[in-house]
Amino acid sequence: MLQTIDADVAVIMPHYNCAEFLPQAVQSILLQRDVRLKLIFVDDCSPTSECRTALAPFLGDERLAVLQTGRNVGPWRVDNWLFERLRTPYLAFQDADDFSDPERLRALLDELEASRADIVGSDYYEISETGEILRLRTMPRDVNRALARGRDHAILHGAVLMRRSVLERLGGLDGTDPYLGADTDFALRASFVARMRNLARPLYFYRRRANSLTQSKETGFDSVARKAYKERMLREHRRRRSAALWGLLLPRRWRRPPSLANRPNDVEVEIFPVAG
User: Fold this and answer.
1) Which of 13, 98, 164, 255 has a 20 to 30 A CA-CA distance from 206?
2) pTM as predicted
3) Over the stretch 118-177, which tens digit does the pLDDT of each residue have?
4) CATH-assigned architecture of domain 2-273
5) Where are the domains of the chain?
């Protein structure tokens, strides 16, 4: 089914237990202007069926596909499962508790083609749990340069649109941990093979809420688990950079590029279509 999608952009929206924000999130994608898209919604075994009620007004839209995991596996493993099956030339993301400006995808597509980039994000607004704008986050225009200078948060995963060819080169996201910083790890690996840009427009609304993956005590930015993952990730990135820089000093026939392969899903992931 996913391999035969008739669209230019597949928008991936994993969901877990935040149904109250779904109507705004889904509507913001279905209202995107001048883009042939398919929204792939995947409920990751939420504890209640509230998301079904939240999605009900949109089920008649042929651009929406609703899927369900067999068990809770985390968003990165869901992404990897989808990457293997989607064949659209472009992929985009949308967190289920955030929302997008209606011009977002068209603007990112135009920037991607005009700049010949491979991955494009944008500035974004941080909003409160109830939707009030807290601040504007201005992201670096040249993401590759920012990452090379040591900035690890240089592009927001939820705000990204990319060429599928990047995923083919890198093999997807780190699927060995269900909740931590695989998105940042992907950006660091991509910086070796992909041109990454941020558009100087706030096109995404990032919701800060206490129970989200990046804010909770167990998986948030200040958690022990995320800090340990980040340290390992940055250590590996430093090794790759050293290997790449050292390789430039060697004769071309001896050069070996650093390994950029991902860690594939370490658990079986089963995802099924949900009947309307």
Assistant:
1) 164
2) 0.90
3) 999 999 999 999 999 999 999 999 999 999 898 878 999 999 999 999 988 888 998 887
4) Alpha-Beta Complex (3.90)
5) 2-273
